[in-house]
Design a protein that fits this description.
Length: about 350
């Protein structure tokens, strides 16, 4: 089969489009004919991080949708030709947290495209327990667009932070997958949204999505604008996935009893907090990791009913993975980049 792989860690030049053996499903597994796969920042981090031991040559790609091509022994309830989505977080099912139903905290979970081979390939294998049926009417491209970014935002805002109607929500990075999803989730729950982005065109797109107050970070300070938007009160919820570069201002933007929910540290993980402000204003800092299979099905049903609309910037064929990753690295997109496979 064809796949985009790297044989050693490094830059985009290390990505190669080449032939690799087609994997064979073992007991309890299925072979997926990959039809669409989302492109994410995590693909770059995996490629660059030489500290983590990976199976080589390595295939990234975490958001996979496709058709079941082969069913391994012992698999029940899944048939050849079924349209499915693959959970990006493969859990053990037996640790303390899995047994509590909090599988995002699994102590031995594996990320698709990191510890196991991913979806930038014509085929991939997956455990049948982590393959989910696509609801009727949800296409492969739309499914691949929401399996990580939107599910992550849903888990952050609904499961972890408990977003409520009437709240003021600050969303950082409206142009990215998590940010554009967070905007829709906030509006779906009846919140007012202030969102950051960069550039006139991205600001226009954010307004078209229903953002109540857009901050172009090339023109204004988002902390000042958040306080202005809320008449000095601050926001009830911050959706933070940028990290060190925005952390201090994100915390400062919160109202009393405000919550900040964070899922990433793209710009750095070391930050400083003023403990006095935390207890004086009764602020809550909430971590959030990925999402669960229940979150995936909740999001896919919302897509099915038109409540969430995947924001797709461009689609590319499999051999153009390096170009798609280059655009993400250069921050030249608004929404998701999707690798779409030709029919075989």
């Amino acid at each position: 089969m064809k796949a985009v792989v790297f044989h050693e860690h490094g830059g985009l030049e290390n990505l190669k489009y080449e032939d690799v053996p087609t994997p064979e499903p073992q007991e309890g597994e299925v072979l997926i004919d990959v039809k669409a796969c989302g492109v994410n920042h995590v693909d770059k981090w995996i490629r660059l991080d030489g500290k983590k031991k990976l199976p080589m040559p390595h295939i990234t790609g975490t958001e996979v949708a496709g058709e079941v091509a082969v069913v391994g022994s012992g698999v029940r309830g899944i048939g050849v030709g079924q349209c499915v989505a693959v959970s990006h977080w493969w859990t053990c099912g037996s640790c303390e947290w899995c047994l509590k139903g909090e599988e995002s905290l699994c102590v031995s979970g594996k990320i698709v495209g990191m510890e196991v081979q991913g979806g930038f390939a014509e085929y991939m294998v997956a455990p049948a327990t982590h393959v989910l049926p696509l609801p009727e009417g949800v296409c492969f491209t739309d499914a691949a667009a929401v399996l990580v970014s939107t599910v992550t935002a849903w888990h952050m805002m609904v499961a972890r932070a408990g977003i409520k109607a009437g709240e003021d929500v600050l969303v950082l990075g409206a142009d990215g997958g998590v940010g554009s999803s967070a905007i829709q989730i906030a509006k779906l729950h009846g919140a007012r949204v202030i969102a950051t982005t960069h550039g006139t065109e991205n600001a226009r797109r954010a307004r078209e999505m229903g953002v109540d107050y857009v901050v172009d970070i090339e023109q204004a300070d988002f902390l000042d604008e958040a306080l202005k938007f809320t008449s000095g009160r601050g926001v009830d919820l911050v959706v933070e996935h940028v990290g060190a570069a925005t952390w201090e201002k994100s915390v400062s933007s919160m109202a009393r009893n405000g919550r900040l929910v964070v899922c990433g540290d793209t710009t750095g993980r070391q930050v400083t907090d003023d403990i006095h402000v935390l207890f004086r204003k009764q602020l809550s800092l909430i971590g959030s990791m990925g999402g669960t299979r229940r979150d995936i099905m909740d999001v896919l049903r919302l897509v099915q009913h038109g409540k969430i609309r995947p924001v797709i910037y461009k689609t590319y064929p499999l051999d153009k993975v390096p170009e798609a990753e280059r655009i993400i690295e250069a921050r030249q997109h608004f929404g998701k980049m999707i690798i779409v496979q030709d029919q075989r």
